[in-house]
Structures are given as C-alpha cells and as structure tokens.
Design goal:
Blueprint lengths: L7 H13 L14 E5 L2 E4 L4 E4 L14 H11 L10 H13 L5 E5 L2 H16 L3 E5 L34 H4 L2 E4 L4 H11 L3 E6 L12 H11 L4 E5 L10 H6 L5 E4 L10 E5 L1 H4 L23 H14 L4 H22 L5 E5 L2 E5 L8 H5 L3 H13 L2 E2 L5 E2 L6 H18 L2
Parallel strand pairs: 3-13, 5-6, 5-7, 7-8, 8-9
Antiparallel strand pairs: 1-2, 2-3, 4-10, 9-10, 11-12, 12-14
Helix pairs in contact: 2-10, 3-10, 6-7, 11-14, 13-14
Length: about 425
C-alpha cells in the first residue's frame, strides 16, 4: 500500500494541536490525524488523502457527509437566524416527529450532548421514583456525566453490584449511588433489583450494549422486573435511535421502556440530543406544573437549536423513505459476513459481532455476551487490524463500523478488497 502523504500544512496543524490540546487531541479521534472534509461516504485528511468513512463522526452522519438536502435545510435556517433561546417551527416539528416515531415518547426535551441527555434521563427517573440509586450495566457507555462514568472502562472485575469510578474528580458519594449488573445476565440483574428495589430510582441500559446483542428474553425480562417494582426503565438510544430502525431499538427488539435518550442521527450531524418518555415522568420537566421540590430545571442556551433541528428534520425525512433501511442492512450484511468469512478462511480466531448497520471484530475464540468477554479479546491484534485498514483507505473508529445510506456497491467492493489485504497481512 502507498504510504500516506503528509503535507507541510497538516504537519503544522498537528504541531499546533500538540501545543494547544491536552494530549494533542480534542479527546477523540486519532492523534496526528487532521480531517480536511467529507462528502457522502468518504472523507479526506488535511493532506488530501481520501478514505471510505465508517466512523461517520462516531455515528451522526447516518445519511453521509454534506448531504445536499441537509445542507440546504441548514443554509435556509442560517438565513433566518442561528438561535433564539426559544422554540422555533423546526424545534416543534422535530419533537412531533420523535413522538410519532418512538414508542415510549409522549413528550420530548432537547439537549446538546448525549452526556446531558443521559444525565437528565437518570435525574428524571430519580425525581419520579423518589429514590437515589441508578442501576447500570458493566461496560455500558452513557456519556461522560458522573453516574455514567461508573464501570464504563472497568479495570478490575469487582463483585456485582459494586461500581468502579473510571475518572478522577468524581465524588466518592456517586460511587455509592450506582449499582452495576452484567449485561445479558437476567438472573443476576433480577437478584440485584430485588435486593435494592426500594433504593433504585431507575435502570439505564443500552439495548444493544456497544456492539453486544441482547440475548433472547433479556430486554423483555428487564422490562418485566422493572415493571414489577415500578422502577423506570431507560433505554439509552443515543446510538441505536433511528439506526436499527426508524423507531430505534425499542421497535427493533420489541420492548418499550419508560424513558429513552436519543442523539447522533436525530441531530443530523449537529449538536442536538433528546430525552423522551412517558407523560407522568416527563412532567417533572414542567417547572410551573410540578409542586416545589419535584421539578427539574433544564435550561440550556442551545437546547433545540433551530439549525440543529432543521438538520435533524432533513435527516429523518431521508431515513423515512421506502427501502432506506433495507438497503443499508444489505450493504452492512455483505461487509459483516464478508469480514467473518475472510477471518475464518485465514484461521484467525475472531468474532464479528453487532447488527448489520453497526459491527466490529473482536479477536477471540469465545462468543461475546457481556463486557468482560470483550476484555478477554486481543486488543493489540485489533489495533493492528485497524491500522492495516487505514493503510488501505478505510477510516473507522477503534471499536465500530458505522454504516450510512451513502455507502454503495463501489464502497463495498473496495472495503472487501481492504479486508483481503489486512487479513492476509495479519495472518502472516
């Protein structure tokens, strides 16, 4: 493969990034790699090297980069104003679209980040329930708020339900407010809920945890045990919302929570996320309608920003078109199955896990059903594989292939060829 060309301009930008960012990065992305732009399913770096993009901005660019309809919607809104600290037509129409699409959604509140959305969802559940503890799952990612940062990157295998803080600066008291259970283990989870049910304010779960699929009956059983004790169940659908299907994971897996969080796809590549859920829980966001001590203030300068709302509406209109999800599924299936087949032929122990629209490989012989299974996989081999793909013009994150509506047959052919080369070199 040709060595990546690095221009003087990009080298200067990298030098400045090292000088001005802690660790030389914005906290994500590849250090020493500066993105120059993107269109459709491709991006190019600041030196002009082009890549097929399976990172998609970590998921938001579900209809591809700079989609003409999204660009037009944003341009039109820019000409009438950028933000007003109040609802606009676009904000209202996007809320209507969310309520119509998402099974659990009676009402919606917009935020700007997934971290905010999960924080407010957990806060709303605690306010409604009148209890302090949150149950989450080992290795689950719910953003960067204090409660979410418990056992997100666990370094120890503590006994459940003990939480492990994975960031400095989190008060010790938060550790005592979070219970941790193993994903896909309904028996252990139910036992924790039964023991602590009178202290639990809510249960939050990624219905597809990172890339780990829920085993048959797990989500339904979780719904049943939370219903039994009248504990709000939160689906974190920042990733899966409008991605697994137009109604998200709750439609795809057939289980309806009490609250959900939405992000990435719903903002069309702009900073917009949402909390949505049942009337009686969402009512706590109505400061005027709730008694003192029961309401949740939720002001944010850019909440429901009209530019982001316009981009989100345009994106959802594209996704609603007939055959959109079927085409994306077909492309993803070809790539996912193609990667597994090549690894099997090369006799490299590996499991390609996830759904067709979002998947990745773990270098292990065992089936992965929980986070601790992923910890036993060979990360060094995965990093090597990702580096080989980058050399072949494939851009992805460390842990996912995201599919967009813009990926086409030409991309599939080039990606399968990249798989051929990367797997062959990996197996030497």
């Amino acid at each position: 493969m040709a060595e990546r060309y690095v221009s003087d301009h990009e080298q200067e930008l990298v030098r400045k990034a090292d000088a001005y960012f802690p660790g030389g990065s914005t906290g994500h992305g590849s250090r020493g790699f500066i993105v120059g732009g993107g269109r459709g399913s491709h991006i190019w770096d600041a030196s002009g090297n082009e890549y097929i993009d399976y990172l998609l901005g970590s998921g938001p660019m579900i209809v591809g980069h700079a989609h003409p309809e999204v660009v037009e919607a944003v341009r039109n809104q820019l000409e009438t104003g950028s933000t007003f600290f109040g609802a606009t037509e676009e904000t209202v129409l996007l809320a209507e679209e969310v309520v119509n699409a998402v099974a659990c959604a009676d009402k919606v509140r917009f935020c700007c980040t997934g971290t905010e959305a999960t924080m407010f969802a957990m806060r709303a559940a605690r306010a409604f329930r009148g209890r302090d503890k949150i149950l989450k799952f080992d290795g689950a990612y719910h953003g960067m708020n204090d409660h979410a940062m418990m056992s997100i990157f666990p370094t120890e295998q503590l006994d459940y339900p003990q939480a492990e803080p994975n960031s400095a600066g989190i008060p010790k008291s938060v550790e005592d407010e979070v219970l941790v259970a193993p994903f896909n283990d309904l028996e252990t989870t139910a036992a924790i809920v039964e023991q602590y049910h009178d202290e639990i304010g809510g249960v939050i779960v990624e219905p597809m945890q990172r890339l780990i699929l829920p085993v048959t009956g797990f989500l339904a059983g979780l719904r049943e045990i939370t219903n039994q004790y009248e504990i709000p169940l939160i689906f974190d659908e920042v990733v899966t919302g409008f991605r697994l299907g137009y109604g998200g994971a709750q439609e795809y897996y057939g289980v309806t929570p009490d609250l959900c969080t939405l992000g990435k796809a719903v903002g069309g590549g702009h900073p917009l996320t949402a909390v949505a859920g049942r009337d009686e829980i969402m009512a706590h966001f109505d400061q005027a309608g709730m008694p003192s001590g029961k309401s949740l203030p939720q002001a944010g300068t850019l909440n429901g920003n009209p530019i982001a709302s316009a981009a989100g509406l345009a994106t959802l209109n594209i996704l609603k078109r007939e055959g959109t999800y079927e085409r994306k599924e077909a492309v993803g299936r070809t790539l996912r199955e193609g990667l597994q087949e090549r690894l099997d032929v090369a006799e490299i122990p590996a499991k390609v896990i996830g759904e067709n629209v979002m998947f990745d490989v773990y270098f292990t012989q065992e089936d992965i059903v929980d986070h601790r299974g992923t910890m036993r996989a060979d990360d060094d081999k995965k990093n090597e594989f990702n580096g080989l793909l980058r050399e072949n013009g494939i851009y992805k994150g460390g842990s996912k292939f995201y599919l967009s509506t813009a990926h086409d047959d030409k991309d599939v052919k080039a990606t399968l060829a990249a798989f051929d080369d990367a797997v062959e070199r990996l197996g030497r």
